[in-house]
Design a protein that fits this description.
Elements: H1 21-44, H2 48-69, H3 75-99, H4 104-126, H5 137-164, H6 169-188, H7 193-216, H8 228-259
């Protein structure tokens, strides 16, 4: 894979955020909300899987249109889209598993193959998988297709590890957290930036889902029993605060660049 670091788009043209510590914190929180939020809407709020899936799918479509129409990165639109992708990605996997009875082994393998195909097409067309140069409509469509597939794959892989293989929520969070740490170490030691980014991006999904399940599930099932409503509300509040800070910093950066 080609990092294409020498071809990064100017910051004011790129429609995705820089990959910083704040990026990863918001990403993990978003994956947790995707797990707990989907559970709350479908079960806690009584909407059911069908209505929840239809409403979240419609909201994701609206957010994607907003994101694709922007001429530069706007934090609140980008992260709103990520949260909704997380919710829809979770529901796609849950629908296949619970609704259609598809094996987690099969769905994990199918999503992995689909993601590999998306990356292959992306690279064949653009000669790059760089996440620092998303400044054309075509690249952005590849980017969001890959993002949606990583959430579905991460959900299936996480459920496979924690439920089908019996790892449990706590050990699942520890195991996937350790893998994220190893991926970060590989990047720090000179590993390919794009490859380690996408591996880390996939791993944060089952880590966030295991963390969410550990916080929300009843103690009899190995969780802490905090409930999906309060966990989702707490994590959403932190996401809003961090995105508001990112929005302020981004605006300040644009004003500073314009004043030069």
């Amino acid at each position: 894979m080609n990092t294409q670091t020498a071809h990064r788009a100017p910051p004011w043209l790129n429609r995705v955020p820089q990959v910083t510590l704040s990026f990863w914190v918001i990403k993990i929180l978003s994956t947790t909300v995707g797990e707990t939020g989907a559970d709350f809407l479908a079960v806690g709020a009584g909407l059911g899987q069908g209505v929840t899936r239809a409403v979240m799918g419609a909201l994701l479509l609206i957010a994607l249109v907003l994101q694709l129409r922007t001429r530069r990165y706007i934090p609140w639109i980008y992260w709103l889209t990520v949260v909704l992708v997380s919710l829809v990605g979770t529901q796609i996997t849950d629908g296949l598993t619970d609704g259609l009875g598809v094996s987690l082994y099969l769905s994990t393998a199918a999503f992995a193959v689909t993601l590999a195909a998306i990356f292959a097409c992306w690279y064949a067309v653009e000669r790059s998988l760089s996440i620092h140069a998303i400044f054309t409509r075509r690249r952005e469509l590849f980017y969001w297709a890959a993002i949606l597939c990583t959430f579905a794959l991460g959900t299936a892989a996480g459920d496979l590890a924690t439920e089908a293989l019996g790892l449990g929520f706590a050990w699942g969070a520890i195991a996937f957290g350790a893998l994220i740490g190893l991926t970060c170490a590989a990047w720090r030691l000179g590993g390919n930036a794009v490859l380690t980014f996408w591996i880390g991006y996939i791993l944060t999904r089952p880590f966030g889902a295991a963390l969410g399940d550990m916080l929300t599930q009843a103690k009899t099932y190995g969780g802490l029993g905090l409930g999906a409503l309060w966990t989702s509300a707490l994590f959403l509040t932190v996401i809003v605060l961090l995105v508001a800070m990112a929005q302020f910093d981004h605006r300040q950066g644009i004003q500073t660049a314009a004043a030069r």
